[in-house]
Structure formats: C-alpha cells, structure tokens
C-alpha cells in the first residue's frame, strides 16, 4: 500500500479497494490507474479483466509488477459487468478490505471526485456518486443518453419505491459488512441490473444510502459496452420486480385490513358481551333489592 499524502476527508474508514472492471480498455487503463493513485493514494486497486482481446489484461499485469497496490483478477471471457463486479467483491471481501468501490475505467468517473464520495461513508452505509442530485452533472452526453438514464432511474424509483435519484449510477462505495449482507439477496449480473439491485437491497435492508454529486464525463476513448439489448433486459427485469413488489404491497394491505376488521369484530363482541353481562347483573341486583326491602 502506498504512503498517504496528508490528511484526507475519508481518513479513518480503513482499507479501501477500488474495483475497475475492464473489457477492451487499453487506451484508458494507464490513465485511470495513474489518476486514482494520485487522487486516493492510500486505496488499493483491483482490475477485473474479462480476457480483453486488446490485451488490457496483459497491461494490467505490467502495472501490477510496477506497483504492488494494483491487483489484477483475470477471468476467462466476457460475462458482463455484474459478473465482473461480483468476482471483484468476492476477491476484496476475502481479503478483508473495509470499503469497496465500483469504478469505471473509461474516465466517466473522475478519480479526483472519489475522496468526496468516500467521505460520505462517515454518515452512510452506501454512497452513490450521483448525476441527478443538486451539483451533479453530465458532460458531453447526447440528449437521448440523458433521457434514458434519468428515465431509467425514475422508472425504478416509481416501480420499486427506492428513494434514490441516480439508481443506475455506477460509482458506488460500500462498507464491507453492508456489502456482504446485501450480496446475500438476489443480484442481476447483466448490465445496469447490478447497480439497481445493490441499491434496492441496501434500501430494503434498512441501510443508509447517501448520494454525493459527481460530474460524469462521456468516454473519449474506447467503445461503450452499453447496448439496446442491455437496456431492454433491464427494463423487463425492473418491470417484473416492480409488479412483484407492488403485488406484495397490495397483499400486505389486504391482510392488514382483514386483521383490522377481525380485531374490530372481536372488540365489538367483547363490548356486546360486557354490556349484556352488566344488564344481567343490574336486573339481578334490582330483583335482590326488591326482596331485601320486603324483609326489612
Ligand atoms: N470485466 C468486464 N468489464 C466490463 C464488461 N462490460 C463493461 N465493462 C467495463 O465496465 C465499465 C463500464 O462499461 P462501459 O462500456 O463504459 O459502459 P457504460 O459506462 O455503461 O456505457 P457508456 O456510458 O457508453 O460508457 C468499463 O470499465 C468497461 O470496460 C464486461 O463484460 N466485463
Ligand atoms: Mg462508461
């Protein structure tokens, strides 16, 4: 681990691992690791490469040879972003890192903004770098990408009741014990599904989620792996999850209403019983009093 250069806002959080999944990022890998080493010098880096045809994995090995805080996890072939992150999380949790971070290789996430995101963990269990809160922004994104991202987050928020503005955001930091717990619930391995599911699971399990504004910059080098089929998959899955969630909410509402009606019925029964007993007792007492009067 490298020496820390002076106090930073995220000091005291323990050992940090920044996980970077890569697929054909040969033009970005030096840039992103170099900037991260400067911006967050006390963090370790794990590159999770899916056997990139452009030899990103080989370059990652060279970076590891030159800097012991850069690690590499090689995988057999392209299995998607979610699978790469799950493998990276497993690697980091096994090695007892205290904080794990999701970070893209393409420069869309700026290493210089990571300290502010990490500092959010002092008061939260999960922190999302957010484009859609005050102070957040996107740079060089075509309108259709912005609409897709905003719309996707809104749809998830409405369907699943998650009070987070940038649900699909890919720059996320977790406390290790929180991550271990939320990985225990179902997680989609495809495209953006993993970001939705990690956020959803954290919310459902009652963890504090904070959103820290970031400026997201469209990649300038290499190719996007986002595709129409990934978006379609995410939409279908979100709709399925939403229908299940809303169905369960309705069923719980009915069950509560029924339980309420039953207990109201029981209360009414008890009331009628008490009234009739009181009436019965009064009649008996009146009769007894009448008898008593005759004797005196
Ligand atoms: N290991 C691995 N990394 C992946 C895979 N798909 C994408 N990545 C990496 O995940 C990060 C995000 O992927 P991008 O292609 O930038 O996708 P995106 O950010 O959703 O799309 P853009 O906004 O167009 O950049 C990058 O570092 C990619 O190299 C994959 O199947 N395996
Ligand atoms: Mg990207």
Our count of helices gives 8
Overall number of strands: 9
Shape estimate: elongated
C-alpha-based Rg, rounded: 29 Å
- Which CATH architecture? Alpha-Beta Complex
Our measurement of the CA-to-CA distance between the termini, rounded to an integer number of angstroms, reads 104 Å
- Residue-averaged pLDDT: 91
Please identify the top-level CATH class. Alpha Beta
Sheet-strand content, in percent, reads 5-15%
CATH homologous superfamily classification: Spore Coat Polysaccharide Biosynthesis Protein SpsA, Chain A
**Helices and strands: which structural class?**
alpha/beta
* Number of self-contained structural domains: 1
Determine the CATH topology: Spore Coat Polysaccharide Biosynthesis Protein SpsA, Chain A
Q: How do the helices and strands follow one another from N- to C-terminus?
A: EHEHEHEHEEHEHHEEH
Describe the structure.
With 296 residues, this protein is of the alpha/beta class. It has a single domain (16-226), classed as Spore Coat Polysaccharide Biosynthesis Protein SpsA, Chain A, CATH 3.90.550.10. Helices cover 50% and strands 14% of the residues. It has eight helices and nine strands. It has helices at 29-39, 56-66, 81-94, 114-119, 143-160, 176-182, 193-204, 228-295, and strands at 16-22, 44-49, 70-74, 99-102, 126-130, 137-139, 172-175, 209-213, 215-217. Helix 5 packs parallel to helix 8.
